[in-house]
Amino acid sequence: MPNSHLLFSYGTLQLESVQMANYGRLLKGSKDKLAGYKIERLKITDATVLAKSNADDHPIAVKSNDKNDVIEGMIFEITEQELQETDKYEVSDYQRVLETFESGRKAWIYIAKK
């Protein structure tokens, strides 16, 4: 895939309905884990995101620096355009960072803004 990115999802982007609404296709991916983060909950008020996810309560990754804290999810391969669409989908409470996962792969993940 030209200009492809790896994206780690631990929440609504794993849902087929959200993938179809966001990208017009189902994403291919594999399970992975990230240590040093924990999941908290975020109340969503953005109407566009609510329409795609059908959920007003989304998980949000928070850096804990505790190696015992582990987030499980999926690493998907997406295009540059799809990464930009994902930036629009994730509300302003999130920021995108590059992390190294248990598999050794580097992927983007959306985490809580400091």
What keyword list fits this structure?
single chain, alpha+beta, Hypothetical upf0131 protein ytfp, two-stranded antiparallel sheet, 3 helices
Structure commentary:
- This protein is of the alpha+beta class.
- It has one domain: Roll (Hypothetical upf0131 protein ytfp).
- The protein has three helices and seven strands, in the order E-H-E-E-H-E-E-H-E-E.
- The protein has helices at residues 16-23, 47-53, 80-89; strands at residues 4-9, 29-35, 37-43, 57-63, 70-79, 94-100, 106-112.
- The strands form three sheets. The chain has a three-stranded antiparallel sheet with strand order 1-5-2. It has a two-stranded antiparallel sheet with strand order 3-4. The protein has a two-stranded antiparallel ribbon with strand order 6-7.
- It is globular.
- The model has no long low-confidence stretch (mean pLDDT 88).
Which SSEs are present, and which pair or pack?
Blueprint: E1 4-9, H1 16-23, E2 29-35, E3 37-43, H2 47-53, E4 57-63, E5 70-79, H3 80-89, E6 94-100, E7 106-112
Antiparallel strand pairs: 1-5, 2-5, 3-4, 6-7
- What number is the mean pLDDT? 88
Order of helices and strands: EHEEHEEHEE
CATH class: Alpha Beta
Q: What general outline do the C-alpha atoms trace?
A: globular
Backbone CA Rg? 13 Å
The CATH topology turns out to be Hypothetical upf0131 protein ytfp
| Strand order in the largest sheet | 1-5-2
Major β-sheet, in short? 3 strands, antiparallel
Number of helices, counting only DSSP H or I runs of 4 residues or more = 3
Taking pLDDT < 50 over at least 5 consecutive residues as the criterion, the unreliable ranges are none
Helix content: 10-25%
Task: Compute the number of structural domains.
Answer: 1
